[in-house]
Amino acid sequence: MIDTVKIVDAQIHLWEADRPDRPWPEYGHAFAHGPEMSATTVLAAMDRAGVDKAILVPPSWEGDRNEVCVKAARAYPDRFAVMGRFPLDRSMRREELENWMRQPGMIGIRLTFRQDFQLAWMRAGITDWIWPLAEELQVPVMVLAHGRLPEFRAIAERHPGLKLTLDHLALSGNDGDRVLDHLEPVLAFAEFPNVAVKATSLPNFTAEAYPFQNIQEVIRRTVAAFGPRRVFWGSDLTKLVCPLEDCIALFTEACDFLDAEDKRLIMGAAIADWIGWEL
To answer: What is the pTM for the complete model shown?
Structure first.
Protein backbone atom coordinates (compact mmCIF):
# COMPACT_ATOMS: atom_id res chain seq x y z
CA MET A 1 0.00 0.00 0.00
CA ILE A 2 1.39 3.39 -0.95
CA ASP A 3 1.41 6.25 1.55
CA THR A 4 -0.13 8.86 -0.73
CA VAL A 5 -3.17 8.71 -2.98
CA LYS A 6 -2.99 9.87 -6.58
CA ILE A 7 -6.23 11.74 -7.19
CA VAL A 8 -7.76 11.58 -10.66
CA ASP A 9 -10.96 13.51 -11.28
CA ALA A 10 -13.15 11.34 -13.52
CA GLN A 11 -15.05 14.27 -15.05
CA ILE A 12 -14.35 17.94 -15.66
CA HIS A 13 -15.76 19.99 -18.55
CA LEU A 14 -13.90 22.66 -20.51
CA TRP A 15 -15.60 24.83 -23.14
CA GLU A 16 -15.53 28.12 -24.97
CA ALA A 17 -18.26 30.74 -25.13
CA ASP A 18 -21.02 30.66 -27.70
CA ARG A 19 -20.12 33.13 -30.46
CA PRO A 20 -20.95 33.69 -34.14
CA ASP A 21 -17.83 31.98 -35.46
CA ARG A 22 -18.29 29.03 -33.09
CA PRO A 23 -21.99 28.70 -32.27
CA TRP A 24 -23.45 26.24 -29.82
CA PRO A 25 -26.43 24.16 -30.91
CA GLU A 26 -29.72 25.80 -30.02
CA TYR A 27 -30.47 23.33 -27.24
CA GLY A 28 -27.14 23.95 -25.49
CA HIS A 29 -28.06 27.11 -23.60
CA ALA A 30 -30.71 25.35 -21.53
CA PHE A 31 -28.25 23.26 -19.50
CA ALA A 32 -24.79 24.85 -19.89
CA HIS A 33 -22.81 25.19 -16.65
CA GLY A 34 -21.75 28.74 -17.53
CA PRO A 35 -20.49 30.94 -20.37
CA GLU A 36 -17.03 29.32 -20.59
CA MET A 37 -14.38 27.39 -18.64
CA SER A 38 -10.64 27.37 -19.32
CA ALA A 39 -7.87 24.89 -18.59
CA THR A 40 -6.00 27.43 -16.46
CA THR A 41 -9.04 28.02 -14.24
CA VAL A 42 -9.55 24.29 -13.77
CA LEU A 43 -5.87 23.65 -13.08
CA ALA A 44 -5.83 26.33 -10.39
CA ALA A 45 -8.78 24.65 -8.63
CA MET A 46 -7.13 21.23 -8.98
CA ASP A 47 -3.86 22.51 -7.53
CA ARG A 48 -5.58 24.09 -4.53
CA ALA A 49 -7.42 20.86 -3.76
CA GLY A 50 -4.57 18.46 -4.50
CA VAL A 51 -6.04 16.82 -7.60
CA ASP A 52 -3.26 15.34 -9.71
CA LYS A 53 -5.03 14.60 -12.99
CA ALA A 54 -8.43 15.00 -14.61
CA ILE A 55 -10.37 13.41 -17.42
CA LEU A 56 -11.78 16.12 -19.64
CA VAL A 57 -15.26 15.53 -20.97
CA PRO A 58 -16.32 17.86 -23.81
CA PRO A 59 -19.77 19.15 -22.80
CA SER A 60 -22.80 18.40 -24.93
CA TRP A 61 -23.98 22.02 -24.90
CA GLU A 62 -21.15 22.85 -27.32
CA GLY A 63 -22.28 20.16 -29.72
CA ASP A 64 -19.95 17.41 -30.88
CA ARG A 65 -16.70 19.34 -30.41
CA ASN A 66 -13.43 18.19 -28.87
CA GLU A 67 -10.93 20.91 -29.77
CA VAL A 68 -10.97 22.77 -26.44
CA CYS A 69 -10.24 19.64 -24.45
CA VAL A 70 -7.72 18.28 -26.96
CA LYS A 71 -5.86 21.61 -26.87
CA ALA A 72 -5.68 21.43 -23.08
CA ALA A 73 -4.46 17.82 -23.15
CA ARG A 74 -1.80 18.76 -25.67
CA ALA A 75 -0.63 21.64 -23.46
CA TYR A 76 -0.79 19.68 -20.18
CA PRO A 77 -0.30 16.00 -21.06
CA ASP A 78 0.63 15.08 -17.49
CA ARG A 79 -2.61 16.53 -16.12
CA PHE A 80 -5.36 15.91 -18.69
CA ALA A 81 -6.77 13.12 -20.85
CA VAL A 82 -9.91 13.35 -23.00
CA MET A 83 -13.03 11.23 -23.39
CA GLY A 84 -14.17 12.67 -26.70
CA ARG A 85 -17.48 12.82 -28.53
CA PHE A 86 -18.71 12.66 -32.09
CA PRO A 87 -22.06 12.45 -33.91
CA LEU A 88 -23.38 8.91 -33.96
CA ASP A 89 -25.65 9.15 -36.98
CA ARG A 90 -22.77 8.39 -39.35
CA SER A 91 -20.90 5.15 -38.69
CA MET A 92 -17.11 5.07 -38.76
CA ARG A 93 -14.94 2.39 -40.23
CA ARG A 94 -12.35 0.77 -37.98
CA GLU A 95 -9.56 2.88 -39.49
CA GLU A 96 -11.50 6.10 -38.93
CA LEU A 97 -12.00 5.41 -35.24
CA GLU A 98 -8.35 4.40 -34.87
CA ASN A 99 -7.31 7.72 -36.42
CA TRP A 100 -9.77 9.63 -34.25
CA MET A 101 -8.21 8.03 -31.15
CA ARG A 102 -4.78 9.32 -32.19
CA GLN A 103 -5.73 12.89 -31.28
CA PRO A 104 -3.55 14.27 -28.44
CA GLY A 105 -4.77 13.01 -25.09
CA MET A 106 -7.72 11.09 -26.54
CA ILE A 107 -8.28 8.03 -24.39
CA GLY A 108 -11.89 7.04 -25.01
CA ILE A 109 -15.43 8.06 -25.94
CA ARG A 110 -18.15 9.84 -23.97
CA LEU A 111 -21.73 9.71 -25.26
CA THR A 112 -24.95 11.40 -24.19
CA PHE A 113 -28.51 10.61 -25.20
CA ARG A 114 -30.32 13.45 -23.43
CA GLN A 115 -31.77 15.02 -26.58
CA ASP A 116 -34.83 13.51 -28.24
CA PHE A 117 -33.09 13.12 -31.59
CA GLN A 118 -30.20 11.23 -29.96
CA LEU A 119 -32.58 8.85 -28.21
CA ALA A 120 -34.44 8.37 -31.50
CA TRP A 121 -31.15 7.39 -33.17
CA MET A 122 -30.52 4.87 -30.41
CA ARG A 123 -33.97 3.31 -30.58
CA ALA A 124 -33.88 3.14 -34.36
CA GLY A 125 -30.59 1.25 -34.30
CA ILE A 126 -28.65 4.08 -35.96
CA THR A 127 -26.09 4.10 -33.15
CA ASP A 128 -25.66 0.32 -33.01
CA TRP A 129 -22.40 0.49 -34.96
CA ILE A 130 -20.37 2.06 -32.14
CA TRP A 131 -20.69 -0.67 -29.51
CA PRO A 132 -19.09 -3.61 -31.38
CA LEU A 133 -16.41 -1.35 -32.86
CA ALA A 134 -15.43 0.08 -29.48
CA GLU A 135 -15.47 -3.44 -28.08
CA GLU A 136 -13.22 -4.70 -30.87
CA LEU A 137 -10.72 -1.84 -30.51
CA GLN A 138 -10.92 -1.86 -26.69
CA VAL A 139 -11.90 1.81 -26.57
CA PRO A 140 -13.56 2.62 -23.23
CA VAL A 141 -16.94 4.34 -23.42
CA MET A 142 -18.59 6.58 -20.82
CA VAL A 143 -22.33 7.25 -21.10
CA LEU A 144 -24.88 9.56 -19.55
CA ALA A 145 -27.39 6.81 -18.81
CA HIS A 146 -30.06 8.36 -16.59
CA GLY A 147 -33.46 7.32 -17.89
CA ARG A 148 -31.84 4.94 -20.40
CA LEU A 149 -30.89 1.99 -18.20
CA PRO A 150 -32.85 -0.71 -20.09
CA GLU A 151 -31.12 0.27 -23.34
CA PHE A 152 -27.67 0.22 -21.75
CA ARG A 153 -28.34 -3.05 -19.97
CA ALA A 154 -29.00 -4.64 -23.33
CA ILE A 155 -25.76 -3.16 -24.69
CA ALA A 156 -23.75 -4.48 -21.73
CA GLU A 157 -25.23 -7.94 -22.26
CA ARG A 158 -24.59 -8.02 -26.01
CA HIS A 159 -21.02 -6.71 -25.76
CA PRO A 160 -19.25 -8.32 -22.77
CA GLY A 161 -15.86 -7.04 -23.95
CA LEU A 162 -16.99 -3.40 -24.07
CA LYS A 163 -15.69 -1.28 -21.20
CA LEU A 164 -18.80 0.73 -20.35
CA THR A 165 -18.94 3.34 -17.58
CA LEU A 166 -22.19 4.86 -16.27
CA ASP A 167 -21.66 8.53 -15.43
CA HIS A 168 -22.93 10.06 -12.15
CA LEU A 169 -24.12 6.59 -11.06
CA ALA A 170 -26.84 7.12 -13.70
CA LEU A 171 -28.57 9.43 -11.20
CA SER A 172 -30.23 12.75 -11.82
CA GLY A 173 -30.52 15.93 -9.78
CA ASN A 174 -34.28 15.36 -9.92
CA ASP A 175 -33.93 12.17 -7.86
CA GLY A 176 -33.66 14.26 -4.68
CA ASP A 177 -34.55 12.51 -1.41
CA ARG A 178 -35.34 9.30 -3.29
CA VAL A 179 -31.79 8.92 -4.56
CA LEU A 180 -31.38 5.54 -2.83
CA ASP A 181 -34.49 4.22 -4.56
CA HIS A 182 -33.12 5.28 -7.93
CA LEU A 183 -29.79 3.65 -7.12
CA GLU A 184 -31.10 0.08 -7.02
CA PRO A 185 -31.47 -0.38 -10.82
CA VAL A 186 -27.91 0.93 -11.22
CA LEU A 187 -26.51 -1.55 -8.71
CA ALA A 188 -27.99 -4.34 -10.83
CA PHE A 189 -25.34 -3.56 -13.46
CA ALA A 190 -22.65 -4.83 -11.06
CA GLU A 191 -23.27 -8.34 -12.40
CA PHE A 192 -21.55 -7.28 -15.63
CA PRO A 193 -17.76 -7.23 -15.13
CA ASN A 194 -17.43 -4.92 -18.14
CA VAL A 195 -19.50 -2.15 -16.48
CA ALA A 196 -18.11 0.46 -14.06
CA VAL A 197 -19.63 3.58 -12.51
CA LYS A 198 -18.46 7.13 -12.02
CA ALA A 199 -19.29 8.40 -8.52
CA THR A 200 -19.24 11.93 -9.86
CA SER A 201 -21.13 15.05 -8.79
CA LEU A 202 -22.60 13.23 -5.79
CA PRO A 203 -22.96 16.27 -3.48
CA ASN A 204 -25.35 17.66 -6.10
CA PHE A 205 -27.82 14.87 -5.33
CA THR A 206 -28.58 15.98 -1.77
CA ALA A 207 -29.74 19.06 0.10
CA GLU A 208 -27.45 18.13 2.99
CA ALA A 209 -24.11 19.83 3.64
CA TYR A 210 -20.80 18.07 4.20
CA PRO A 211 -20.36 15.29 5.32
CA PHE A 212 -23.43 14.39 3.16
CA GLN A 213 -24.72 11.57 5.36
CA ASN A 214 -27.29 10.22 2.88
CA ILE A 215 -24.72 10.21 0.07
CA GLN A 216 -22.36 8.18 2.23
CA GLU A 217 -24.95 5.41 2.11
CA VAL A 218 -25.07 5.71 -1.68
CA ILE A 219 -21.30 5.26 -1.78
CA ARG A 220 -21.35 2.35 0.66
CA ARG A 221 -23.91 0.43 -1.38
CA THR A 222 -22.19 1.20 -4.66
CA VAL A 223 -18.77 0.04 -3.51
CA ALA A 224 -20.30 -3.07 -1.93
CA ALA A 225 -21.92 -3.94 -5.27
CA PHE A 226 -19.21 -3.02 -7.79
CA GLY A 227 -16.08 -3.21 -5.67
CA PRO A 228 -13.53 -0.37 -5.51
CA ARG A 229 -11.96 -1.28 -8.85
CA ARG A 230 -15.16 -0.30 -10.71
CA VAL A 231 -16.11 2.87 -8.81
CA PHE A 232 -14.44 6.11 -9.90
CA TRP A 233 -14.45 9.36 -7.92
CA GLY A 234 -14.99 12.64 -9.73
CA SER A 235 -16.31 16.12 -9.12
CA ASP A 236 -18.00 17.40 -12.29
CA LEU A 237 -16.37 20.57 -11.02
CA THR A 238 -18.16 23.17 -13.13
CA LYS A 239 -21.57 22.42 -11.60
CA LEU A 240 -20.41 21.23 -8.16
CA VAL A 241 -22.52 22.73 -5.36
CA CYS A 242 -19.81 22.47 -2.69
CA PRO A 243 -16.07 23.22 -2.50
CA LEU A 244 -13.97 20.72 -4.40
CA GLU A 245 -12.15 19.96 -1.16
CA ASP A 246 -15.43 18.76 0.42
CA CYS A 247 -16.14 16.50 -2.53
CA ILE A 248 -12.72 14.89 -2.02
CA ALA A 249 -13.06 14.65 1.77
CA LEU A 250 -16.42 12.90 1.37
CA PHE A 251 -14.47 9.87 0.13
CA THR A 252 -11.09 10.28 1.82
CA GLU A 253 -12.31 11.26 5.30
CA ALA A 254 -16.09 10.99 5.83
CA CYS A 255 -16.63 7.46 4.48
CA ASP A 256 -14.98 5.52 7.32
CA PHE A 257 -16.12 2.23 5.79
CA LEU A 258 -13.53 2.71 3.01
CA ASP A 259 -10.07 1.42 3.87
CA ALA A 260 -6.80 2.80 2.52
CA GLU A 261 -6.75 0.49 -0.51
CA ASP A 262 -10.37 1.31 -1.34
CA LYS A 263 -9.49 5.02 -1.36
CA ARG A 264 -6.36 4.51 -3.47
CA LEU A 265 -8.43 2.74 -6.10
CA ILE A 266 -11.58 4.87 -6.05
CA MET A 267 -9.73 8.20 -5.99
CA GLY A 268 -7.62 7.48 -9.05
CA ALA A 269 -5.86 4.15 -9.51
CA ALA A 270 -8.97 2.25 -10.62
CA ILE A 271 -10.02 4.61 -13.40
CA ALA A 272 -6.43 4.94 -14.61
CA ASP A 273 -6.28 1.17 -14.97
CA TRP A 274 -9.76 0.97 -16.55
CA ILE A 275 -9.02 3.46 -19.33
CA GLY A 276 -5.30 2.70 -19.67
CA TRP A 277 -3.97 6.05 -18.43
CA GLU A 278 -0.59 5.65 -16.75
CA LEU A 279 -0.28 7.31 -13.36
So the answer is: 0.95
